[in-house]
Amino acid sequence: MDEAVEDYSDAVIASKRHVKFFQRCLQVLPCSYSSLDTSRLTVAFFALSGLDILGSLDIVEAEKQEIINWIYSLQVLPDTANSEESLSRCGFRGSSTIGIKYNPSQDETSVFHPYDLGHVAMTYTGLASLIILGDDLSRVNIPAITAGLRALQLEDGSFSALENGSENDMRFVFCACCISYMLQDWSGIDQDKAVAFIQNSLTHDFGIGQGPGQEGHGGTTFCAIASLVLMGRLETAFTERQLEGLKRWCLFRQQSGFNGRPNKKTDTCYSFWVGSTLKLLGVFDMIDFRWNRNYVLSTEDTSMGGFAKWPDYHPDALHGYLGLCGLSMMGEEGLLPIHPALNITQRAADHLHSVHNKWKSGDDAHKR
Predict the structure, then answer these.
(1) Among candidates 183, 104, 200, which has minimal Cα distance to 148?
(2) What pLDDT does 297 receive?
(3) Whole-angstrom distance, CA of residue 284 vs CA of residue 278
(4) Mean pLDDT, rounded, for 24-38
């Protein structure tokens, strides 16, 4: 085990401060966040998710429609003059940094800009945020998004982040699977190739890396296992021996909290990345809840709210939300349960499934 942390067995999380923390993340951020300007949508996702898991989305009720309209304004639509060729760049952009006009109605196709491309991670967080806010996805251009996904999948089964070349790894396989699941349209993914990429990324010690030959990592192991669960391929992708090895590798990530790789420091976010993987593998109850809870609470900022990577470090939106997820999976009072594969609350997932049921019954003709 890592060095012991203070015993928080009787502690109660500072819920009101966390609500204010996530509310601030939606409104104004310090200059140190300027590097995230092109991915504002992901920051908004963590803030909305944090409010949701705290059962406090009502605090943004007055601004909810404005936030929904802003998210739709980030949808990259086919170009009017060249709609077929421009389909490959469709999805959601992370912000309006490149100067795209804010168009809350989204009642017309996009004006072409050579650097205006959908990003697979922003498309995932954009769709997830709409679901969290109770939207019915009626303004999502599903054929354009699935065409964009098809353009991003590489021959080895992985996905690039955006068109015309970028990093490609397991994170974006996960994003593509979440998008396809949320839209109930898997035509943008060659699932066999995606499964093969995941299988080829299994390491000698049964972690899963960013790609073949890469070191096993808690975050990418989650992305791989969650992708297989969403595709319904977990039990067929790996042998029983490999699944047992994966369980063992993940269980060995617990020190006090969890780390992401052998011989690395514990970090609040892995309470979700590794914890959710153990949930999906059916062995979450084998962890030491007390040690994990103590570590997560040791990173809580009880003055301004939020959670940090490490104790006595500054909080941020990602670790704030994922810290709450780790506590939620252990049954922390006052937190909503989560859907571990999609990384949203079960409440939001239930709303998503109600949208799917409407599509199946034909009550909403938008999908096709």
Answers:
(1) 183
(2) 97
(3) 5
(4) 89
Closest CA to 120 of 143, 82, 79, 152: 152
Q: How far apart are CA 141 and CA 72, in angstroms?
A: 10
- Cα gap 47→32, rounded to integer Å: 17
- Annotate 319-339 with b (16+ C-beta within 10 A) or e (fewer): bbbbbbbbbbbbebeebbebb
Per DSSP bridges, beta strands 338-339 and 168-169 are unpaired
Q: How does the average pLDDT of the chain come out, rounded?
A: 93
Residues 129-137: what's their mean pLDDT? 98
Q: How far apart are CA 67 and CA 179, in angstroms?
A: 20
Helix axes 240-251, 218-231, angle to 10 degrees: 140
Residue 76: helix, strand or coil by DSSP? strand
Mean pLDDT along residues 114-141 = 95
pLDDT of residue 105: 63
Mean pLDDT of 230-235: 97
**Least confidently predicted of 12-16, 48-52, 274-278:** 12-16
Are 137 and 358 within 8 A, CB to CB?
A: no
**What region, left, alpha or beta, does residue 137 occupy, with left being phi > 0 and alpha being psi -120 to 50 degrees?**
left
pLDDT, residue 158, reads: 98
Beta partners for residue 110, in sequence order: 79
CB-based burial label for 29 (10 Å; 0-12, 13-18, 19+): middle
The torsion of the CA quartet 180, 355, 44, 310, rounded to 10 degrees, works out to -70
Q: How many CA atoms lie within 13 A of 226 on its CB side?
A: 31
CA–CA separation, 110 and 87 (whole Å): 11
Classify 299 as helix, strand or coil: coil
Read off the tokens for 225: 């296992």
**Angle between helix 120-132 and helix 40-53 axes, rounded to 10 deg:** 30
